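tokens incoming
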């Protein structure tokens, strides 16, 4: 039903342009400053320096100043759109601490206008697959790397990057209302990712949960 390997339908050349631009910007920045702001760790490689960046239970190795993005803990290739989000995170990170203030997608800059598309690409696919079996949503989410938390009826927390936790929450339906869902963020997320990147990241995690059904 859903393509679990590719997020939003964007032309490949648009991804490639976005990657080149993000890599160029990151290569001009101080690696120690990037690490301080993002929570990544500076490491030495055989050819120079790199940033070790936790990403959804894996670890990315981002070489610097000549930028490349690979997994540090497995041999799989990193999808282009995932490399872009990682570079965007490293470029945008401000080092802002978590505020403890919860926000939904509609609260983000431009989020209200984009919310219908966000629902179609992230929440509705989850409800289509798990709306009648939220226990399976929980099991699939745990297999996908999530952690069970106490919000709503069923909720899973994912640590996307060191400073970007996300909570996927589903509520049971009843005779009056169908099952519903949301994604909850700490308000500091705006200092690490754009609303567009957050949308793609949430879509990616939703598809990962579905893939683990």
């Amino acid at each position: 039903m859903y393509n679990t390997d590719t997020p939003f339908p964007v032309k490949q050349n648009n991804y490639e342009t976005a990657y080149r631009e993000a890599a160029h910007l990151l290569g001009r920045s101080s690696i120690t400053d990037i690490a301080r702001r993002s929570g990544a760790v500076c490491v030495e490689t055989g050819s120079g320096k790199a940033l070790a960046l936790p990403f959804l239970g894996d670890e990315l190795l981002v070489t610097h100043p000549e930028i490349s993005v690979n997994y540090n803990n497995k041999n799989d290739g990193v999808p282009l759109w995932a490399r872009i989000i990682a570079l965007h995170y490293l470029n945008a990170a401000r080092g802002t601490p978590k505020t403890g203030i919860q926000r939904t997608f509609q609260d983000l800059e431009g989020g209200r206008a984009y919310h219908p598309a966000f629902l179609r690409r992230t929440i509705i696919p989850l409800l289509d697959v798990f709306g009648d079996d939220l226990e399976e949503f929980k099991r699939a989410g745990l297999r996908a790397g999530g952690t069970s938390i106490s919000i709503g009826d069923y909720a899973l927390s994912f640590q996307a990057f060191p400073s970007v936790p996300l909570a996927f929450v589903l509520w049971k339906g009843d005779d009056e209302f169908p099952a519903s869902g949301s994604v909850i963020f700490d308000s500091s997320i705006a200092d690490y990712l754009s609303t567009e990147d957050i949308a793609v990241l949430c879509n990616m995690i939703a598809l990962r949960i579905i893939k683990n059904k």
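note: The radius of gyration is 17 Å.
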